[in-house]
């Protein structure tokens, strides 16, 4: 019997620690890195040729919504195709446990707009064998996985479970007894393997209210009380474990920043703020955020920013689009059934309000939206035209120009827009700040118009190879070691002896993000947009090859990483 299961032979190792790259071999035994250096092929059962390739730790994605998808897609695509080997689920306070049986349908409905996950896919793809959070983790444990999964404990289901849906969505202050029950549920979830807690706390209205419930109302976490967040932070501080993920307003909001600093100080744990984003027309927003992160570091407060480093555009129709929710006028006009939305968008009496309340958070510019898929003979003439050009040719306001086409096509017009972060100079400023993580993928969410799970491949191509904003060594630290450390992934994110063998082997010079495809592979006969990668010779998870030459091997070596480590529940030593 050979000494090792696998040797990755002859590659250039970039180990995630920021030391200079070097030529070397990596030996793997029982899913763990057993030796690094010069290793004879005869010592292994299997040899993977890495000559001319970069060998690096698998990428760690802290912001995904694969909570539902992992049950029907063991690979958590599109993340798996882009070198990601570990993901954190339960972000933004959204999740499916604890959820009583009579609330299951409502829990799924809540994800249809805020994260744009198709209801039919959830209804057919989720087994719902659980009620409590520990039972939810047991269900994940029993599900085949080609990805490592680490769970936040989402605060939304806890609020609903204790306060009831109506009071949770009204933002009622919990009583002392209700706070105690919330913390009991939270501690039970941490005991079972949660890595901390998460919440989206966006204002119910205004320019940051970009993600709402299916009926246009705030999510329970949006209106949760500061006092409740402080109670959650106290639990982490007492246990000296876990971290916090908060999605809060993008901009210079001093109250939000003070609140996040307070939570980080009370808990003594890392806090990951979402999102750091560059707006080409408002660079001061980015600079203010970066300055704040630096001030936190000087104070010794562990606040990090999750950066929007991808420039994946949005291809969308008004059948599915929800990212105009920052504008109350647009949000109200785009909720309801398809017939109701069509009627509202066609209503001339609404148009002035829509013109007066233009959305701007997710768009580069409204008049630069491109008509990429007319859906009727009457609108075919506008193929590949921008809204601005159509408005000029028709003498209409841009809102009328766009919505007249959308209404004519019964909401089926395919549109494309670039995000508002095209400036290379602004991206460089973000990358120069060591407290900003790569991302945000939103993996598993917004699948009909967003493919941000490509971000690791895109970072290596654009940030390192093309624009040389940082070294490959620094990039791999930011893609793997730093996020792994913040989230508590035990021993992952670096290549070292004794570490789990999560490894990517890729062709740096020929790495590519492939064009967008539409695939019909979701339960409920639903479809999504995907972007695959080219250039990954091997991706290994816990020592097994899950991707070879950019193709899935149908190997399910991923694990539920309770507390960042193995699969078994752990109790606090103090208990």
Describe this structure in words.
By secondary structure, the protein is α/β, with parallel strands linked by helices. The protein has 3 domains: 4-56 and 519-552, Roll (Urease, subunit C, domain 1), CATH 2.30.40; 59-313 and 420-490, Metal-dependent hydrolases (TIM Barrel, Alpha-Beta Barrel); 322-416, no CATH class. The chain has helices at 104-114, 119-125, 133-142, 155-163, 165-170, 176-192, 226-239, 254-267, 283-299, 328-333, 338-346, 348-356, 387-394, 398-408, 424-431, 455-466, 472-487, and strands spanning 4-13, 22-29, 32-37, 44-49, 54-57, 59-61, 84-89, 148-151, 153-154, 196-200, 243-247, 271-276, 303-307, 314-316, 370-373, 414-417, 436-437, 503-506, 512-522, 526-534, 536-541, 544-548, 551-552. α7 links the parallel β10 (196-200) and β11. The longest helix is centred in the N-terminal third of the chain and has 17 residues, at 176-192. The radius of gyration is 23 Å and the shape is globular.
* Category by helix and strand content: alpha/beta
Mean pLDDT over all positions: 94
Count the DSSP helices: 17
The general outline is globular
Keywords:
Urease, subunit C, domain 1; 6-stranded parallel beta sheet; TIM Barrel; 575 residues; 32% helix; 21% strand; alpha/beta
């Amino acid at each position: 019997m050979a000494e090792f299961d696998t040797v990755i032979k002859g590659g250039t190792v970039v180990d995630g620690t920021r030391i200079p790259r070097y030529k070397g071999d990596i030996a793997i035994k029982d899913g763990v890195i057993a030796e690094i250096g010069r290793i004879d092929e005869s010592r292994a059962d299997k040899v993977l040729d890495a000559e001319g390739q970069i060998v690096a730790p698998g990428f760690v994605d802290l912001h995904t919504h694969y909570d539902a998808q992992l049950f029907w897609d063991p690979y958590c695509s599109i993340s798996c195709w882009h070198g990601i080997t570990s993901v954190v689920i339960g972000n933004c306070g959204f999740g499916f446990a604890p959820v009583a049986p009579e609330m299951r349908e409502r829990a799924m409905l809540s994800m249809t707009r805020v994260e744009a996950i198709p209801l039919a896919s959830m209804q057919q793809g989720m087994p719902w064998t659980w009620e409590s959070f520990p039972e939810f983790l047991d269900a994940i444990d029993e599900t085949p996985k080609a990805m490592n999964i680490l769970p936040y404990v989402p605060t939304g289901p806890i609020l609903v479970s204790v306060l009831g849906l109506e009071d949770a969505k009204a933002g009622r202050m919990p009583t002392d007894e209700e706070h105690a029950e919330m913390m009991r549920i939270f501690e039970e979830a941490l005991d079972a393997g949660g890595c901390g807690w998460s919440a989206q706390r966006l204002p119910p209205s205004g320019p940051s209210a970009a993600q709402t419930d299916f009926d246009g109302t705030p999510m329970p976490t949006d209106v949760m009380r500061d006092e409740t967040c402080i109670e959650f932070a106290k639990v982490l501080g007492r246990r000296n474990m876990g971290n916090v993920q908060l999605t809060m307003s993008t901009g210079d909001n001093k109250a939000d920043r003070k609140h996040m600093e307070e939570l980080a100080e009370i808990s003594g744990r890392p806090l990951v703020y979402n999102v750091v984003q560059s707006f080409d027309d408002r660079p001061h927003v980015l600079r203010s955020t970066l300055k704040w992160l630096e001030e936190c570091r000087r104070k010794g407060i562990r606040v990090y920013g999750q950066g929007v480093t991808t420039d994946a555009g949005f291809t969308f129709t008004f059948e599915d689009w929800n990212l105009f929710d920052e504008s109350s006028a647009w949000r109200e006009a785009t909720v309801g059934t398809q017939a109701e939305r069509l009627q509202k968008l066609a209503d001339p009496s609404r148009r002035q309000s829509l013109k007066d309340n233009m959305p701007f958070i997710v768009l580069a510019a409204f008049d630069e939206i491109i008509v990429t898929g007319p859906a009727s003979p009457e609108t075919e003439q506008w193929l590949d035209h921008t809204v601005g050009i159509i408005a000029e040719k028709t003498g209409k306001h841009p809102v009328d120009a766009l919505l007249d086409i959308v209404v004519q096509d019964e909401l089926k017009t395919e549109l494309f827009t670039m995000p508002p972060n095209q400036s290379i100079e602004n991206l460089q400023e973000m990358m120069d700040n060591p407290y900003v993580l790569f991302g945000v993928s939103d993996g598993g969410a917004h699948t009909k118009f967003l493919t941000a799970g490509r971000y690791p491949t895109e970072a290596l191509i654009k940030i390192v190879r093309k624009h040389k904003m940082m070294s490959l060594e620094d990039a791999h630290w930011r893609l793997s070691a730093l996020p792994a450390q913040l989230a508590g992934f035990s021993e992952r994110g670096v290549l070292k002896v004794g570490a789990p063998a999560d490894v990517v082997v890729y062709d740096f010079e020929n790495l590519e993000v492939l064009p967008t495809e539409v695939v019909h592979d979701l339960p409920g006969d639903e479809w999504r947009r995907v972007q695959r990668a080219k250039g990954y010779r091997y991706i290994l998870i816990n020592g097994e090859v899950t991707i070879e030459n950019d193709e899935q091997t149908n190997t399910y070596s991923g694990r539920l990483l309770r507390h960042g480590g193995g699969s078994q529940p752990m109790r606090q030593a103090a208990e």
